[in-house]
Amino acid sequence: MTAPGQIVIHDVPRPAIQDHQILLRTRRIGVCGSDIHVWHGRHPYTGYPIVQGHEVSGIVAEVGRAVTGFTVGDPVTFMPQVTCGQCYPCQHGMEHICESLKVMGFQTNGAAQEYFPLDADKALKLPAGLTLDQGAMIEPISVAVHALRRGGGAAGKRVLVLGAGTIGNLTAQVARASGALDVMITDINDYRLALARRCGLEHVINTQDEELMAAIRRDFGLERADLILECVGVEATISQAIACARKGTTIVVVGVFGEKPRVDLGLVQDRELSLVGTLMYQRQDYEQAIALASSGKLQLEPLISDRFPFDRYTDAYRRIEEAAGRTMKVMIELD
Ligand SMILES: [Zn+2]
Ligand SMILES: [Zn+2]
Asked: Whole-model pTM?
């Protein structure tokens, strides 16, 4: 992407790898909301030109001399974080919130190219039985896994997820697959809500048609939700989360806020609510996401709404613009 709305595809020499790297032959690239912000020139931390592609699966095409554990032909995905290793979070096992975190596809080049040189320590093998499509969805699944972990886990809890986009849907599905007692998901977009039902989620609420608190009491009972995850990033939903929370509840803030919301912190104080942020994921989240996807407990296929070949990357973005609110995961395919 050379400028907002400008994608140029051209030939370059096959990249050489360093000893600690593998060469990835890219096969699938998922497009997500952050990519679209870059396309619209509204991503605050991305400059141009940039090669996008951070939700990726591919095949190992070459292995560096110092790399062990990978063989040519292995299907892999990777963690797109580039970290400094020096700052306080990096020194304390929290590389994912590195003070100078860079993400491939945003601040360094991503994998939207036929061959992508990749540090081997960022790559994870995809077990047999996992498809390339599923492999490219490990990244967003890991976002959900990490968010639930930040909330203290889903097991045995009534989990309320606000927002049924890709991340909200996956968060609800991961909660269910991780032993949640019950899961409710909300949105105001009927397409997304229908998809949530297709994925087998039971309590699917359109908050324009139904009062949320009443739905919570009906489906969860008087104890309401034990854990709430805001997966939209707007004032209305974070306010709903705070208003509906039982005393002492944890609310995980997953949504990315474009504008500063006005929220009732008085309720956060008075009800001893915990507002917890979540950014990306750590290696253990990737490993858990791979295990969950392999277990067959996640319905991933319904989330892929559109497919485009690599040379029609621009059409993929136009489709997302034109079908506003009626696309979910758009998948770019390479042979
Ligand atoms: Zn993404
Ligand atoms: Zn760091």
From this structure: 0.97
